[in-house]
Amino acid sequence: MGMPLELNTMIVTKGKEKRLEENLFQLVKDGYRLYPLDIPLDVKQTIDSDHRATAVIKKVEWENGQTIVTYELRALHSSN
To answer: What is the pTM of this model?
Structure first.
């Protein structure tokens, strides 16, 4: 039996991100997702919205059918 896994190349927050420190955020997504680490990725509110920021993922954790992504904002392009 296989494990469902999704590969993501951008961070889509849907407004559910949580600030941990000044530029460090955490996002919990349903399902198991794989993200590239330590390279700049686009941050968007929704998949169809404009590019809002650039971030680097520092940690990805899988547990209880969820993915927890910890990322650092590197550049903010829009406040909305």
So the answer is: 0.89
Q: How far apart are CA 66 and CA 75, in angstroms?
A: 27
Tens of pLDDT along 58-69?
999 999 999 999
DSSP letters for 7-39: E-SSEE-TT--EE-SSSEEEEEEES-EE--SSS
- DSSP 8-state secondary structure symbol assigned to residue 5: -
Q: Is the pLDDT of residue 43 over 70?
A: yes
| Terminal alpha carbon distance of the chain | 42
Half-sphere exposure of 46 (CA within 13 A, CB side): 2
Q: Is 2 helix (H, G, I), strand (E, B) or coil?
A: coil
